[in-house]
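Here is an idea for our session: we take a single protein and study its fold together. Which protein we use is up to you, so please pick one and set it down. Once you have written the record down, we can walk along the chain together:
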Amino acid sequence: MKQQANLIRAGQVIEHDGRRWTVLKQQIISPGKGGAFIQVEMRDLKTGNKTNERWRTADTVERLMTEEKEYTYSYTDGANIVLMDQETYEEAHIPLALLGDAAAFLQDNMKVTVDLVEGDPVAVHLPATVVLEVVEADPVVKGQTAASSYKPAKLSNGVKTSVPPFIETGEKIVVRTEDASYVERAKGWGKRPDGTAPFPPYDGDGECGAACRQAPAA
């Protein structure tokens, strides 16, 4: 169906120059002179090649309607991910390239949504956030607060991000799968009331869960 170019959004599938493309990013640019235009980064669904196109915001593009289907991630097999249909339990092999950088956030038994056009997969959507462990981070500096500048950190999946100064190596945090940005400290991961190292599941209100109480003192 036809839609105005200014309505293009990441994840949509459009037809352009006789080929099908999935939209990766879009940005409306308003130059000092002339009308605004939208710049779109998109990937060719057949070849996997990326390109950038510009349209005037009043232009129209052909958007392809997609069908959503939920799967469970099983494992990665070379250039494909293997998903299980939650209704039929049949396996589906989906090109890993459809995930782009988000592939690093795949986890065992994760529920994912696949967009299909006439039965062909065109995009894979992960949950908005995941919980990962911080495996590298600068030590906490006394006097720093949450308002201080964020510091670099490395997650257990190898992805680099930025975290508040109070986050330490070994803690688990919630991050967005879209851009690997920090959301919050994962529930149950924080300092004990006596200030010793984090141990799950500390509930954060001054009491530790059963596992915490049974843990040896740090």
User: Anything to note?
Assistant: The chain has one helix and 16 strands. The CA atoms of residues 133 and 172 lie 4 Å apart. The two ends are 61 Å apart (CA to CA).
